[in-house]
Specification:
Blueprint (H helix, E strand, L loop, with lengths): L1 H12 L10 H29 L14 H4 L7 H15 L5 H26 L8 H21 L5 E5 L6 H7 L2 E5 L2 E8 L3 E3 L7 E3 L15 H23 L5 H20 L2 H7 L10 H19 L8 H18 L6 H4 L1 H24 L1 H6 L8 H7 L4 H21 L5
Antiparallel strand pairs: 1-3, 2-3, 4-5
């Protein structure tokens, strides 16, 4: 909203400093500052309100150190994160931008699903919360929205460039190529709608999901939407569940998400900037740069939340925050067309997810082969998810969180390096 106000003041009254709001970097910086302020200042008031309302987490008895001290800690702190993300985005971003609209919907959508889950746990006194099938329905619903928008919306395009000597005059006329000058170089360009994504480690190599169906014949592209829809639903469901599982000890999910958010912001900036994308030889996506403002608000909200969530936590984010964080990260990665990098970038979420899956299947295998007692005594991990395994091994949770953050930073740096390692 403020973008439009200062744009008007700049054009009509030549107001000093108003032109700075035209720059993505200025608005992203302001979004970070405001989201941090909201998290730290208004977060305290919300925590006090949650305490008065007795919105407390019921901590399961898992035999872990420090469990009793956490009993009664307010939950639903994800409301702090959601507010600190949405308000700066609405104030500083260009609200007609399709990517901003879609990521705001993603934030609210899974935030609402998580809120309903927390509400049932806290106010209805049902420890199970929202039934798993309804959570999956919410994730699938968001997947349908994201996939349909990215596939059909006219404003979601990538730009292809050609050198004049690479194409014929007939090709130029048929494809309605436009002339553009980048770094004093004369090029021809056209915007195309496509489901192609970036393949890591390979230069100028893109993968179109429609290619999976080549085996069915010449009309395989007619089914492109359906294969893309399945991929998007899988990614959103996997990442949001991964973030949800990771939210098990103080500061782990928020800190890890902040690291991921910085990386996605870098990708949005270079992919949405025609000069950087040409220099790095990566896909240029018009209008994507606006997502840097959202990334700034996202990172600021996560870091600001750590003010109260770092050990010992004064508030838990609950599913209100964790499901929303995962959905945001998945949707963002799809928009910047870097979803194939999710296993690296979201490596912490991945190993947490895998630890649960492996624990369950290994237990079932041992039970079937040796019986229930043997299976209980010979579990793959002392407890899953993985962070609880290390707690059972005697590590303090603040040490576990710090080391997971360090691993997350290493994974994030390696993910960014894929821009050059190709």
């Amino acid at each position: 909203m403020l973008y439009y106000l200062f744009n008007y003041l700049d054009k009509q009254f030549d107001m000093p400093g108003a032109g700075a709001f035209q720059y993505i970097s200025t608005r992203a910086a302001l979004a970070i500052i405001l989201s941090l302020t909201i998290s730290m200042v208004f977060g305290k008031r919300l925590i006090e309100m949650l305490r008065r309302m007795q919105v407390a987490e019921t901590v399961r008895n898992l035999g872990l150190e420090g469990e009793k001290q956490k009993q009664g800690t307010p939950t639903m702190g994800g409301l702090i994160i959601l507010g600190a993300i949405l308000l700066p985005t609405l104030l500083f971003a260009r609200l007609e931008n399709v990517y901003i609209i879609l990521i705001v919907i993603s934030t609210i959508w899974l935030g609402l699903v998580g809120f309903i889950d927390d509400y049932i746990k806290v106010f209805k006194k049902n420890k199970e919360g929202l039934a798993g099938r309804f959570k999956i329905m919410g994730q699938v619903g968001l997947g349908i929205i994201v996939a349909t928008t990215l596939y059909y919306n006219e404003n979601v395009k990538m730009r292809e460039f050609y050198k004049p000597d690479q194409v014929t005059s007939e090709f130029i006329e048929q494809n309605k190529l436009e002339t553009t000058i980048i770094d004093n170089q004369f090029l021809l360009a056209k915007d195309v709608r496509s489901t192609v994504t970036t393949v890591p480690f390979f230069k100028k190599t893109y993968f179109d999901y429609a290619d999976i169906l080549k085996f069915i014949g010449e009309n395989y592209k007619d089914y492109n939407y359906w294969i893309y829809l399945l991929v998007v639903i899988f990614i959103i469901t996997a990442v949001s569940n991964g973030a949800n599982i990771t939210d098990g000890i103080d500061g782990l999910a928020a800190g890890t998400s902040a690291i991921i958010g910085v990386t996605l912001g870098v990708f949005a900036y270079v992919s949405g900037n025609i000069l950087f994308s040409k220099y790095l030889n990566i896909m240029y996506i018009p209008h994507l740069g606006e997502m840097v403002i959202f990334a700034g608000a996202f990172v600021g909200a996560c870091v600001g939340f750590l003010w109260y969530n770092a050990y010992p936590a004064q508030v838990f984010m609950g599913d209100t925050g964790s499901l929303a964080l995962g959905g945001i990260i998945a949707s963002f990665a799809l928009m910047v067309r870097k979803e194939l990098l999710i296993p690296i970038l979201c490596g912490i979420f991945l190993i947490e997810n895998l630890s649960v899956i492996l624990q369950v299947y290994y237990f079932k295998y041992q039970k079937r082969k040796h019986g229930i007692e043997y299976a209980r005594e010979h579990r793959l991990f002392k407890m899953s998810p993985l962070h609880h395994h290390y707690q059972k091994s005697g590590y303090h949770e603040s040490k576990i969180v710090t080391r997971f953050w360090i691993i997350g930073i290493m994974l994030a740096i390696f993910t960014i390096l894929t821009l050059k390692i190709r």
